[in-house]
Amino acid sequence: MSTKFEFISATDKPALLAFSTPEWLEAARTSLAELGYKVHTAATHGDFLIRFSQVRYQVVIIEERFAANDITENLTLQAMQQMPMNQRRQSTVILFGDSFQTFTPMQAFQQSVHAVINSSELFLLKQLIEKAVGDNALFLHSYREAQTRMFASDSKVG
Fold first, then answer.
1. Rounded CA separation 117/89 (Å)
2. CB 116 within 8 A of CB 107
3. pLDDT by residue (tens digit) across 97-119?
4. What is the dihedral of CA 44, 49, 52, 55, to 10 degrees?
């Protein structure tokens, strides 16, 4: 784990990357930085869990073979899949690797993530991240709006 401590301000857009492939990690870091995100990287599964528990990340991208030989051994993905929805609802979670067809909803659903991206589309990663974040925001808009109204009406009672 990195010993460097970074402050996250209210205006920052934090993103967390969990990659084992250096070229993919660098491409993802560059894409997110160009989109204005403050990028953190996890070196290990334990590092990921610590970082994720400390910051409300807007974007999380996990390589399917992060710290694993194949997706079935990916403890980070398994941990995300088992987290209660209220812990991960604020993040757009993207799974990246060779096993997926980009933006196939059923594959994303099966992996309990918002989007899947095939590594062959690395050259489009910036645009694909933008699309995944936008799609997720649109999908959750009504939910968040209803939640805001509910909390507003609860505070008026009493």
1. 20
2. yes
3. 999 999 999 999 999 999 999 99
4. -100
